[in-house]
Structures are given as structure tokens and as C-alpha cells.
Design goal:
It is built from 15 helices and 13 strands. The protein is of the alpha+beta class. The strands form four sheets. Strands 8-9-10-11-12-13 form a six-stranded mixed beta sheet. The termini are far apart.
């Protein structure tokens, strides 16, 4: 089949434009720079997990070939450096006026003002990291073994009144755009925020130095009549420090700080991600194992107010999370081959999971007042079948999540 010259030009243009599409997740290179050598060391590079919050749902950048966006931070103060390079840039005159994306503007508008635009300026600012001291009050320090070496980490508690912290936080929170879905910057002018900051403390040039490693934010909600209900809002361990156990350690430090406060009613979490849920489950289970009510020999007796009360009074765990912890630990305590106990456990969990479906059944009951008998038979049968299938799927997914926590409890010493 013959192709007209116009169609050929169109196909050629479309093919040519595709050559200028880059994946943002692969094009953006991040670093936490401790010394000048890190700038050119590829081993210090890490990448975003997501970029749609800056570059849209496709996570594409248009207009460049071999694009490399360098977004570097000094390790302590988080002074940023932003630059980009590429082998070729699209010419609007050759493509009917189509312009390349303004990459630096898209990123810069999400950052605090004052980022470095040249390596020389960045190196000059990097030297100021030597004088950096963590913000707030030291709550805990601990050691982590990695590659045969011991690394020291410290957790600090801070609020907005700390001198210089506002600017530091403005730089720190930009990381959530690349690692927390549906992320939003918080209103730091609200004094009900508390910040928990994680740093690695190390030696450089025979002096103590710090590297920002992660943080957690907690908002103190009022609870009637004279209590607080702290809500964990954001937690992020920066990629160079992930999979080293810092998430659970940081959460435990926050728990210990809040549990000691007599005016705290319970501790909640705002829209937890799957990863945070697993960290929370692990820490809560480990803590509840120290409570008499959660001893393995008692778990087979079923969920009770005694369990909820002890978890609340001793650990400030709310009833919903305490029930989840109970189910995880009961599953862990099940005896292999005890079919009757396994069945009782399955029914117990399914009865809890079935409660939202019972509310749906109330809706079906109301329909009976307006539908004929024949119509109701069809709807009722479909609804019941759908309910059972969804309930079984939900149960299997729940147990799978629980087993992940159980495996970690069994295999982790810390």
C-alpha cells in the first residue's frame, strides 16, 4: 500500500519526537554529599521511586536526549545543588514550535529558595557542613553494623522554635516528593507539630560530622477533655540508609517519648502506606509480646477488652491496632497441625473482616421494600456470592501481611 508524502512526514515527525522522551525516574540523580569526592563518585548516587508529583502521571520528561538531572544535597545542612546536562535538545523550529520541558523550573518551584547552580558554589557551601549541629534534644543513640563496620546514629526531637530549623526542614521535606505518594508539605507555622530527626554521626578530618538520614513528623491533636492524640504524619528514611532497621528504631524512639507523656491518650497514624504498616506492625508486636495479656498461652482465648485495655494503658496503642497485633501474634502462636485451632482463628478473623459486608446487607434489606421477589433473588444471590469471594480474598491478603511481620519477628534480633 502506497504512503503519501504527508503521511510519511507525519510518521517521521512522530518517531523523531519519541526520541526526545526521557524517563524522569532514571534521569534524576540524587546524592547526599559528605566530601568533594562524593560529587563524582557514582556509588553515592540514588534515584527517585516516583516523579509523577513533579512531572505528571507519565513520569516522562520531553525535549532531551541522554538527560541527566543532578540534584545533590550536602549531607548535613542539606544545601541543594541543581543542574542538568544532555547530549541533545529539541529545536522548536524543527518541530512545529514544540518546546522542551522546563526541567529545572519544575523542580526548583518545589524547593526552598537559594539552591546552588554551579559546582564551585556548592563546594563552597559544602565546607559549612563541618560546623553543623543537629537541631533539638538528643533522645537516643545506637549502633548499626554494616559491612563489618559500626555506624553510630542519633535521634533528636525538635519543634519549630529551634533557630535555623525552618530553613533546614524546608530542604528536608523536598525528599518526600520522590518517595511518598500523595505527599504534601506541612504548615510548619502550626506549633502543634513535633519533629524527630535521624542522623548518622561519623568522623571526618578528625572531627565529629553528621549526615541527615531520615525524619518523622507528629501532629498533636486535642482529645477531650484534657488529652492529646498524637498522629504520625510522615516518616522517611533516606535511600542510602534504608533496609538497615532505622524505620523500626525511629518509630520505637517516638513511641517511647510519647508513652511517657501522661496527657497522651493514644498514638495514631495518618493514611499509613503499606511499608509503614509493616514497620508499625513489627514494632507494636514486639512491644506487645512484653505484656502479660499477649502471652502466647492466652491468645487462643479470643479477643477481649483486657487485651485492648493493657495495650492502651501500657503502650498507648488504639483498639483497632491492638486487635491487629493480637491477630498477628495469635497466628504466630498457632500449633502446626492443630486444624481445630486454625479453623477457630480463621473464623475469628473473618468475623471481624465481615463487619463492613454486614452493613452492605442492611442496604440489601432496604431494597426489599422496592424490588419484586424475582429481582431480589437475583440481587441477593449475586451479593452473597460476591461477599464470600471478597471475604476469602481479604482474609488471604490479611494473613499474607501478618506472615511478613511474623517472619521478621522470628528472624530479627533487634
Amino acid at each position: 500500500m502506497a504512503v503519501s508524502s504527508g503521511e510519511a512526514d507525519m510518521n517521521f515527525s512522530h518517531s523523531k519526537l519519541k526520541e526526545y522522551i526521557c524517563l524522569a525516574n532514571d534521569s534524576i540523580k540524587l546524592k547526599l554529599i559528605r566530601n568533594v569526592d562524593d560529587i563524582t563518585d557514582d556509588a553515592t548516587t540514588f534515584y527517585p521511586e516516583m516523579t509523577h508529583q513533579v512531572f505528571g502521571e507519565t513520569e516522562n520528561i520531553f525535549g532531551y536526549k541522554n538527560l541527566e538531572v543532578q540534584l545533590y544535597y550536602s549531607a548535613a545542612k542539606l544545601t541543594p545543588y541543581l543542574c542538568m546536562k544532555y547530549s541533545e535538545k529539541i529545536d522548536p523550529d524543527d518541530c512545529e514550535g514544540i518546546k522542551p520541558d522546563n526541567v529545572l523550573k519544575a523542580i526548583a518551584q518545589e524547593m526552598a529558595p537559594g539552591y546552588c547552580q554551579t559546582v564551585d558554589d556548592f563546594v563552597m557551601q559544602l565546607s559549612k557542613d563541618a560546623a553543623f549541629k543537629p537541631y533539638g534534644e538528643l533522645l537516643r543513640s545506637y549502633e548499626v553494623k554494616q559491612d563489618g563496620n559500626s555506624h553510630r546514629f542519633e535521634v533528636y526531637k525538635c519543634d519549630v522554635s529551634a533557630p535555623g530549623f525552618r530553613d533546614y526542614h524546608a530542604r528536608l521535606q523536598t525528599f518526600i516528593l520522590w518517595y511518598i505518594d500523595a505527599a504534601s508539605f506541612i504548615d510548619i507555622d502550626d506549633n502543634r507539630w513535633t519533629f524527630y530527626l535521624l542522623y548518622e554521626k561519623y568522623r571526618q578530618n578528625d572531627c565529629a560530622a553528621y549526615a541527615s538520614a531520615g525524619y518523622m513528623t507528629v501532629y498533636n491533636y486535642y482529645a477531650y477533655p484534657q488529652k492529646l492524640r498524637p498522629r504520625i504524619s510522615q516518616m522517611l528514611v533516606l535511600p542510602p540508609f534504608q533496609k538497615q532497621g532505622h524505620g523500626s528504631r525511629l518509630l520505637q524512639v517516638v513511641y517511647d517519648d510519647l508513652i511517657e507523656q501522661a496527657n497522651v491518650l493514644d498514638i495514631t497514624v495518618e493514611d499509613p502506606s503499606e511499608n509503614f504498616m509493616r514497620v508499625r506492625d513489627y514494632v507494636d508486636c514486639k512491644n506487645c509480646l512484653q505484656l502479660p495479656s499477649f502471652a502466647p498461652q492466652h491468645l487462643g482465648n479470643g479477643w477481649s477488652e483486657r487485651l485492648a485495655r493493657e495495650a492502651s494503658e501500657k503502650l498507648k496503642i488504639n483498639a483497632k491496632q491492638a486487635r491487629r497485633v493480637y491477630e498477628i501474634l495469635r497466628l504466630r502462636a498457632l500449633k502446626v497441625g492443630d486444624d481445630d485451632e486454625v479453623k477457630r482463628y480463621r473464623l475469628d478473623v473473618k468475623n471481624r473482616l465481615n463487619k463492613p459486608f454486614n452493613r452492605s446487607k442492611m442496604y440489601i434489606d432496604r431494597l426489599k421494600q422496592t424490588l419484586s421477589s424475582a429481582e431480589m433473588v437475583t440481587i441477593a444471590n449475586v451479593s452473597e456470592t460476591d461477599r464470600l469471594e471478597k471475604l476469602q480474598t481479604l482474609y488471604e491478603e490479611t494473613v499474607k501481611d501478618y506472615e511478613h511481620t511474623i517472619n521478621r519477628l522470628d528472624n530479627t534480633r533487634s
